[in-house]
Amino acid sequence: MLARHAEDLFWAGRYLERAEDTTRMLDVTYHGLLEGGSSDVEAAWRNLLEALQLAHPFYAKHEQVSPRAVAEFLVADVAQSSSIIAAIARARENGRNVREHLSTELWETLNSCFLELRARDLVAELAAQPHELYREIRTRCQAIAGAASETMARSDPWRFLSLGRLVERAEMTCRMLRVRASRRDARTNFHDFLLVLNSVSALEAYTRAHGAEIDPARVIAFLLLAPDFPRSVLYCVRGADELLAELEGGVPTVRPRRTLGRIRAELEYQDADELRAFGDRTVLDRAQSGIWEVAELVEESFFASGPTPQRHIFGSP
Amino acid sequence: MPRDRLPGYQRAAGFDEAVQDSLEVRSHYAAVFEELERLDGSELAARERLRDAIFRRLGITFAVYGDASGSERTWPMDLVPRILPAGEWSQIERGIAQRIRALNMFLDDLYVGERAALRDGVVPSWLVFSSEGFVREAVGLPAPHGARCVVAGIDLVRGADGVFRVLEDNLRTPSGISYVLQNRAALTRVLPRLSARHRIRPVHHYGSSLLAALQALAPRESTGGPRVVVLTPGIWNSAYFEHAFLAQQMGAELCEGRDLVVEDQVVYMRTTRGLERVDVIYRRVDDAFVDPALFRPDSVLGVPGLISALRAGNVAIANSLGCGVADDKAIYPFVPDLVRYYLGEDAILPNVQTYLLWDREQRDAALARLDQLVVKPVAASGGYGIVMGPQSTAEQLEICRKEILADPRGFIAQDLVQLSTHPTFVDGRLEPRHIDLRPFALTGTRTEVFPGGLTRVALRRGSYIVNSSQGGGSKDTWVLEETGAG
User: Fold this and answer.
1) Which of A81, A154, A181, B207 could form a disulfide with A313, with the two C-beta atoms 3.0–4.6 Å apart?
2) Interchain CB distance below 8 Å, B273 and A252
3) pTM, whole model, 2 decimals?
């Protein structure tokens, strides 16, 4: 397929994943605070901005962290290129560029999502019923993913779209963990890690695997290593590797697959208890920088023959 | 029981497609109006909302140039279909196929033939060589099967006498076929009972017919079939939706100029596995932008070196370069003569009476009654630059007269055809609105005319301007099967 189209699909996948993950993180942060248990409200919102690597752009626009300001910044700020509305607009724009590669059902779902959100007063809804809005955005993103999954042939367009999703998701999980892991020394907080699990929709899966005890080290191990949970780093890395392996003949997959293989091997053979003993930052750091490297190698290997490399909004270390 | 009147419908002057002069509903429309009658006002409004939602969801919108908001408008399709009985259609079909055959022979004659039509005085040579649509660089470029104009859209109008006439030929990059298919799909969803009562000739095979016609042009045998791509100016072009739609229908890549590269006179596209060879380009980019190395160095829409690849016979392009000479409005009056010259037949579809303004006598005749005529620039399309005599002020006509005198080759004048009208929903009521018809013809190894075509509607009362860029709407257009009763 055209290099330009592959690139558009890869980034459409990243934008959509970004929008869905951001929504979930916002919802969990907001309601986690309402339910009580967290000592420092402002810190929770700061953590969120840092996890998304958006603290800097946020402070360029706002003097203080407030739930309202952060939510508006992350959801409705069209000038903020990582906001949910901007990410969905870009996903739709990319979808339009590659319209003929998308199934009609996928395009309709994506297009309706954009048109619907654009037509609404998101700021007012954030003030009135934030949960309803988050739930709806999340459901719409999942409907897009579902339409893609159930109506697209397993050929290269599907693979690039899915690759974008998995790379973005793995990175988001790493970011979430990093922000929490760096703060847990003094006051290891049950509540914070409950939030982490909820932010990636992992609480139920974790509880089934490990029971109701929220042990920070175990949470980190779970989100890095769980082979069967679709938002764990290992799961995403494996999925990405498999997608690359399936790309149609003669494609230069060697370099990104070498890096993926390295991360994969490290995670697959990692002993969870050892991870706890050694301190998890090193493994986590290596996984995260490996994923950055993979994203770059994907760009170099598949999109470089294309016309002009696009400038994208996130993904750089 | 078939109904004989449309309640409340004020028939306009001229030919009405659905209602006779006696105000009786034409028999092939009876069932449609019987069904539409069942819809009360709120139900009708609900169906119209559903229609808009379908088009919006599908992203079937078009950009309007010069619209400051840069926004996209939803495709306007009226809920009353236009119906062509089998007999009427068969004459149109034969007429268009005949016309396209003659025009393709004319183009081949001009670009790779001995220019017999010029030698024998059928068309004045100077008219051809002064045409903006004549592309010197295309002389000698081959076109397999003589299929120079692979996709054609011929605009027909129906006058007060009920006769279909050709208003203009569109032989360069005619658009609209995607709307034909989408109108059909939308109307069957919005008003399923309407179509269920008729046997309508299908149009959904257009994509596979187009692909077959294009593949027939491929200059080489290749395993897995020739590689066809669609070349679009890009996402901001007003017909981008159609380009993407056709690429999808054909399973072809939708390329922009920057996705293609010419090396050693071979065209390649830039893919995830590096460069891959391209055999046939269905281009929706104008002649002047196709190859910046040759025509417009400032253009980023085209592919540098494409002409050299064409000349080397390594790639085919549809439509061929230079088809515009045959749809130049100054050549148009000669088309019936070309039909007779090349095919030895009389033209089945007549032209509209046209004045050649470079001819002294005809010009004087036209200038004397400019207020009753329509004046058109010869090279424009999309309804731009047209002066409607009866609706112009004395000053406008004076400006028009001066422009004609300054450049008589640059304009034609035509009798104003009183376009036929068709019942159309306006604020929930049926009112007559003027319409035209653009059938599409595909030529590969043979010419195939698609049943129906795009019916465009002038949505303002009394207006004759049907172009979607200027506030026109559209109708699903049915051709009934021979045996299908209406």
Assistant:
1) A81
2) yes
3) 0.86
